[in-house]
Specification:
By secondary structure, this protein is mainly alpha-helical. The chain has one domain. About 65% of the residues lie in helices and about 0% in strands. Helix 2 packs antiparallel against helix 3. The longest helix has 24 residues.
Length: about 160
């Protein structure tokens, strides 16, 4: 059950911003980086990383956590760490010249899965094998679901 709980929270944490974009369009789409560009002329994070997405992840994970038998604080920590991983990968992608919403396989999925799993490792007694397995499963699900979500017009681009 711990593996399933972890995977569900990962999917909620990372899927909520995508659903928020579909539900709210451009409403409340304030970029986390405030449009800041660094010395290299590239955005700090990019326009796709919004406060709306961060809030959607936090609210969704906090609400879903008790439904899967976990504490709401743990749900909030999973959301925060997933979004921190997502922001980190965006920062690295911008420095590497990858456009906003551009794909960088592995870099797009590993931080947003690994950081929350490290948060869950102690409370759910996950082994290192569990963490590794869940990262791989998350990557495979993310890549498969991305194409489906694009076809359903829930994503801007397929991966």
């Amino acid at each position: 059950m711990n593996l399933l709980q972890s995977l569900l929270l990962l999917l909620v944490a990372n899927g909520a911003p995508v659903l928020a974009w579909k539900l709210f369009g451009t409403c409340c789409q304030w970029p986390v980086d405030g449009g800041l560009r660094l010395g290299d002329g590239r955005p700090l994070l990019g326009a796709g990383k919004t406060f709306r997405g961060l809030l959607a992840s936090a609210v969704a994970c906090t609400l879903v956590a008790p439904l899967v038998g976990l504490d709401i604080v743990l749900g909030a920590l999973v959301a925060a760490s997933a979004m921190a991983g997502d922001l980190l990968s965006s920062f690295i992608k911008r420095r590497a010249g990858v456009d906003t919403s551009g794909m960088a396989a592995g870099l797009d999925q590993i931080p947003e899965a690994l950081l929350p799993l490290l948060v869950l490792r102690g409370p759910l007694a996950l082994t290192w094998f569990d963490v590794g397995l869940l990262v791989v499963v998350f990557i495979l699900l993310e890549l498969s679901l991305s194409r489906l979500l694009f076809r359903l017009h829930l994503r801007k681009r397929p991966y």
